[in-house]
Design a protein that fits this description.
The protein contains 21 helices and 2 strands. The protein has 377 residues and is an all-alpha fold. It has a two-stranded antiparallel ribbon with strand order 1-2. β1 and β2 form a beta hairpin. The longest helix has 24 residues.
Length: 377
């Protein structure tokens, strides 16, 4: 499926829901079901790659403690055969909205403890919104069935020559925002799935030459350059960066804040280069203003920041998906390469385990590739 065909699928999905929900709710349902399909297909493919047959998959239940442990250890979650997306498709007329509610409830219950920070509550918006799809279980079922029939062919196997999840994420931001008659920054408020998708599809910048080229492109706008430099030198989430006011950084050698996602207090030093950039950028500005303002003098939104980074990455010729989470991942990747201390990095990121940290910054995959390159029989 090429990009044009995928775009048509997404648009057709929205058209199916147009008479049932508000335009600004499309993304929550479409993202939710596509992402559930992604996780379900990922588990199914992983088990088959480990010699599970179709018959064995049919015996995948919550009573199988070994299977649950295997999936949780390697994927971070467990989905029983009854709740797989492919099983939904096979149910035909026996499929109902209750299957979706039961599946989401089971998913939340069967997340690995080490992965709760990543997967917990990601389908809350979808689950609580199912009742909007109709005034009865029958009408809700029909709406859901129409939607999953449309998205069933969206590829999630990684065999495409482009980033499927990244394309979906960008398409929803750009086209549905325009369709709603609003600009993306005003229209798009990321919910749990959208945030997690952006984390998954965003890549880090390994090549320091590419980082230098990004800086050169962004240097035509001091705001954009500071946003990029602060992100790759602090490891902050973009939501925390965009929440900063000038008074939080003016004449400071440390930044103190309470993380929006975790509500944890954080304090860290600002290196001399960033201090210099900040001093230059905030000259003659009101200390009570947001550090990063849009052209309309509103606080810069997450989506506006995303578009700034994507545009610069494309101009540099970076093919992999670069998003706002790329700043944090880039910091983590290069911090680890320099100090080789995953425990410190885990504490900086407030992750629950070093394993999650290594996976988040892409080290685990690098080591897997290197092990293959260095293994010859």
């Amino acid at each position: 499926m090429n990009k044009q065909q995928l775009a048509s699928k997404i648009w057709a999905s929205a058209n199916k829901m147009r008479s049932k929900i508000e335009a600004n709710d499309y993304k929550d349902y479409i993202l939710g079901f596509i992402f559930y399909k992604f996780l379900s297909d990922k588990e199914e493919a992983y088990l088959k790659s480990n010699d599970w047959t179709e018959e064995a998959l049919k015996k995948l239940t919550e009573e199988d403690a070994d299977a649950i442990e295997f999936c949780q250890k390697n994927l971070g979650y467990f989905i029983s055969y009854e709740n797989l997306f492919s099983t939904w498709l096979g149910k035909g007329k026996d499929f109902g909205v209750a299957n979706v509610r039961d599946a989401i409830s089971a998913f939340n219950r069967l997340i690995s403890e080490n992965y709760k920070q990543i997967f917990e509550n990601i389908f809350d918006t979808l689950q609580t919104g199912l009742s909007k799809l109709g005034d009865s279980a029958g009408s809700q079922t029909k709406a859901i069935n129409d939607l999953i029939q449309l998205i069933k062919d969206i590829p999630t196997n990684g065999n495409q020559d482009y980033d499927v999840l990244g394309f979906i994420y960008e398409y929803l931001i750009g086209n549905f925002a325009a369709n709603a008659g609003k600009k993306a920054g005003e229209f798009y408020t990321p919910h749990e799935v959208a945030i997690l998708m952006s984390e998954i599809v965003a890549n880090h910048l390994k090549d320091k030459e590419k980082i230098a080229q990004m800086k050169k492109i962004l240097s035509t706008n001091k705001r954009n350059l500071l946003l990029f430099n602060l992100g790759i030198n602090s490891g902050l989430r973009v939501s925390d960066i965009l929440a900063l006011d000038i008074k939080d950084v003016k004449d400071k050698t440390f930044i103190e804040l309470r993380e929006q996602k975790t509500n944890k207090y954080k304090q860290f030093p600002i290196n001399e280069k960033i201090q210099s950039d900040i001093k230059d950028f905030i000259q003659n500005k009101n200390v009570n203003e947001p550090l990063f303002l849009s052209q309309k003098d509103n606080r810069l939104s997450r989506v506006q920041a995303y578009k700034i980074l994507r545009k610069a990455a494309k101009e540099v010729g970076i093919e992999v998906h670069i998003g706002t989470h790329s700043l944090r991942k880039t910091f983590g990747y290069h911090h680890y390469q320099k100090f080789k201390d995953v425990v410190i990095l885990q504490k900086i990121f407030n992750h629950s385990s070093p394993f999650i940290t290594l996976r988040y910054i892409g080290i685990e995959q690098d080591e897997i590739f290197q092990s293959y390159e260095n293994f010859i029989l």
